[in-house]
Every structure is written in C-alpha cells, then in structure tokens.
C-alpha cells in the first residue's frame, strides 16, 4: 500500500457514518439508529475514496509516518456524508416571481399552468436561451447548492418539450458534469408537460418515436450521458397509460425510472412505479395506502419534496405512513421556478417540522436513501471504506445543528469535500 494519502481529517467530535454495513438503503429501524462515532478520524486516499474511518487514536497509530496532501484538524467539529439532492429542475430561463404573488393571492398551481403560465412560461424562455446563458445560470445554482452542502444532485431537463431544447438542456447538464465539482445524475424529463398545440397522444408519440431514439443515438455516440427518465404523471398532464408507455420506452434503452407521481391527484402512480420496478417516485402527496404498500414491496423509493407542499400549501407527504410500511424514503429540494430552494438543510428542517421525520431519518433520507433513488448507493451516501470521499465539516459539536438551525447554513458548513478535495 502506498504511504501517500489525499486527506486526513483529525479528531472530529462526531462522525456520522450514516451506515457501516454496506447497506444500499435504510428503512425505519436503520434510520433511527444511524451509526455515529465520537472522537473520530478519517482518511481519504489519492483516488478520492474513503480509506479508513474510526476512533482517532487507532487511526493515528495506524497511519503514523504516512504523508497527506491535506490535514484538517476537526477538533470540536462534526463530519457527515455530503448531502444528496434527489430531485431538481435547475436548467431554465425565466423565473416566476410574478406567479408567486398570484399563488399567494389564492391561485392554484394547476390554474396558473392551465392559463398558459407555470411550466409553459419557463418553456418559452428556455427555448429562447442560448446554451451559454443556460450554463451560466445552472453553474450559479449548482454552486449555491454546493455551498449548502449538496455534493451530488439529480438534474432534470423538461423545459424544452421539443427535441432541440431537451437536447440543449441535457448537453448543458453534461457540460456541468464535466466541468464542476458537484456530482450530477441527469434525467430526461421531456414529458414534463404537454406542449401547447399538441394532444397527450401526440406528445407521447413524439417522445417515444422521435426524442428517445435521438437521445439513444447521442448516448451511443458518447456525446451525452443520461441516467434517468421522468414523466409528470398528473391529471391534465400525462395520464397513467401514456406515462407507462414513456417510462417503459426509457427503461428499454437502459434509463432508470424516477418520475413525478400522485402529486395533486391520486393517479395510482405508485402502483405503476412498482409494476415497472421504478427506482423512485417523487412527490406522492396524494398516494393511497395501496400505493404505499406496492412501493414497499417493490423497493421503489419515495423522493419526498417538502418545499413543494409548503409553497403550494398541499397536504404534506405521508412520510410517517411510508416509514411505518417499510418504504425507502429519500428527500429532494425540487429546486425549480415554482419552488426556489437550493438548500438541503432547509429541506431536512421542513421534513422534520412539517412531515414529522426525526433528524436521523431526515439525514438518512438526504444521504444514503437519496443515493439509492439515483442508483448510486454502492458508491455514495455514507462514510464507508471504498466509497467516494464526499463529506461536510459542520462547525458545531453536534451534527444536528445543521437541521436545527433555520437558515444561515453556509456559515455552519465549514468545508465541503468532494472526492477528498476541499471545494
Ligand atoms: O416537481 N410538478 C411538476 N414539476 C415540478 C414543477 C415544475 C415547475 O413548476 O416549473 C415539481 O414541482
Ligand atoms: Fe419536480
């Protein structure tokens, strides 16, 4: 073994491993009992992977005489895995602050959408924006997320609804993946709304016969990497049959299924996700008991989005019922022009206060379970030997301050570390 390492984090007050048995996800019992070590040190190798983690004394003697590119004295601080945001829409032009005012005055999300605003407003502006403009705003947003502790983020397309703009958005996400520190899982969301002037059947056919084959070609040529497929399965948007057809076509070309379901109306999206062996379904404010049971049985994770329920004053996602039934619960910010939130600490706070999750549960949902929702929990989401060295140093002697404090997280997060590099 080489005697050179990238990073030595010395003597942290607490290190929250999240899990340490190689679990790919945690359900209720595991989330309750997160693995925490007091007075702990951690070593990241030159390859950016965790090499060792354990009691400070034993790490000190084991690595005596080794050389490190960087040493951080973490006395009085806590270490947690980097936060993972399992649901965002970060590529767009045209904010909707004017619609926030309408919604505060009583308009519903669907009233604004059906009047041609909402997603349609953002689509008009995103179609007109250049790739450079989109990249510039995307990198600013991802940098804000990173400063708030997000080290891996899911990024959707979906404000194009036509082949050219969807590809433009996915290429911008690809550019970010290659040039920014933050980790990215990319999602094709061409079925985010039915484009103006098209029927659901026409839009579905365009996605399956035109957009997905072109995407496949680009992926095979190595121009683009896309990880997931998404559909907004909702009354007045894509119904259950069109959602099934689009998701199945995406799955057939190797994409992981991760879609919007049961948000504003019960659609049986959860049952559909279970039937298709989806990796994840987001929202689920209106999920039924049968849907919860089906997801638990299929191992389909629930990506809950407390910002959306908060902003739209929807019923809260039923986190407790899902946990009680054994569903794998993850969290996401849903960053988009409707829910303008870049901060996973705020998301965890809302999950605890409004969805009645415990702080341990919220952290597991924003780390190992969010990694699972993206199909990346073998390499991300916990501080275990062999996993990617993505972590946060919290300037507090108890990690829970990250959730307890309401805002101001950028001061609390002393260092964000990705692959062993301070970023
Ligand atoms: O997850 N519900 C559908 N999609 C987004 C909102 C997108 C938008 O309004 O621009 C969501 O909340
Ligand atoms: Fe969304």
TrEMBL record:
Lineage: Eukaryota, Metazoa, Chordata, Craniata, Vertebrata
Catalytic activity: 4-imidazolone-5-propanoate + H2O = N-formimidoyl-L-glutamate
Superkingdom of this protein's organism: Eukaryota
Family to which the UniProt record says this protein belongs: Belongs to the metallo-dependent hydrolases superfamily. HutI family.
Cofactor: Fe(3+)
Domain Amidohydrolase-related: 79-423
One MF annotation (Gene Ontology) recorded for this entry: metal ion binding
Protein name: Probable imidazolonepropionase
EC number: 3.5.2.7
Species this protein is from: Synaphobranchus kaupii (Kaup's arrowtooth eel)
């Amino acid at each position: 073994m080489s005697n050179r390492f990238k990073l030595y984090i010395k003597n942290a007050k607490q290190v929250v491993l999240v899990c340490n048995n190689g679990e790919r996800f945690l359900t209720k019992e595991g989330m309750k009992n997160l693995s925490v070590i007091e007075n702990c040190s951690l070593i990241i190798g030159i390859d950016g992977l965790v090499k060792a983690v354990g009691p400070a004394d034993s790490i000190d003697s084991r690595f005596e005489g080794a050389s490190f590119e960087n040493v951080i004295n973490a006395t009085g601080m806590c270490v947690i895995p980097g936060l993972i945001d399992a649901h965002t829409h970060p590529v767009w032009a045209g904010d909707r602050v004017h619609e926030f005012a309408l919604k505060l005055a009583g308009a519903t999300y669907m009233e604004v959408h059906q009047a041609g605003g909402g997603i349609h407003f953002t689509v008009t502006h995103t179609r007109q924006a250049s790739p450079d403009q989109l990249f510039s705003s995307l990198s600013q947003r991802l940098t804000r997320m990173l400063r708030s502790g997000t080290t891996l983020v899911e990024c959707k397309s979906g404000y194009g609804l036509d082949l050219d703009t969807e590809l433009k958005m996915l290429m911008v996400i690809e550019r970010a993946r290659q040039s920014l520190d933050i980790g990215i899982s990319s999602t094709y969301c061409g079925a985010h709304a039915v484009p103006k002037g098209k029927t659901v059947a026409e839009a579905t056919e365009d996605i399956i016969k035109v957009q997905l084959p072109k995407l496949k070609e680009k992926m095979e040529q190595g121009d683009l990497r896309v990880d997931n497929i998404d559909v907004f399965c909702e009354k007045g948007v894509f119904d259950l049959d069109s959602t099934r057809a689009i998701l199945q076509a995406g799955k057939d070309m190797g994409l992981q299924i991760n879609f919007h379901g049961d948000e504003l109306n019960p659609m049986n999206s959860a049952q559909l996700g279970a039937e298709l062996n989806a990796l994840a379904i987001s929202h689920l404010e209106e999920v039924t008991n049968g849907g919860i049971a089906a997801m638990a049985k299929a191992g389909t994770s629930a990506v809950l989005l407390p910002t959306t329920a908060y902003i739209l004053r929807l019923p809260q996602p039923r986190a407790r019922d899902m946990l009680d039934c054994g569903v794998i619960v993850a969290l996401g910010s849903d960053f988009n022009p409707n829910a303008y939130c870049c901060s996973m600490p705020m998301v965890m706070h809302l999950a605890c206060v409004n969805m009645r999750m415990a702080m341990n549960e919220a952290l597991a949902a924003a780390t190992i379970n969010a990694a699972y929702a993206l199909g990346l929990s073998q390499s991300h989401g916990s501080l275990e030997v062999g996993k990617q060295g993505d972590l946060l140093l919290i300037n507090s002697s108890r990690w829970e301050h990250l959730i307890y404090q309401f805002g101001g997280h950028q001061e609390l997060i002393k260092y964000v570390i990705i692959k062993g590099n301070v970023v």
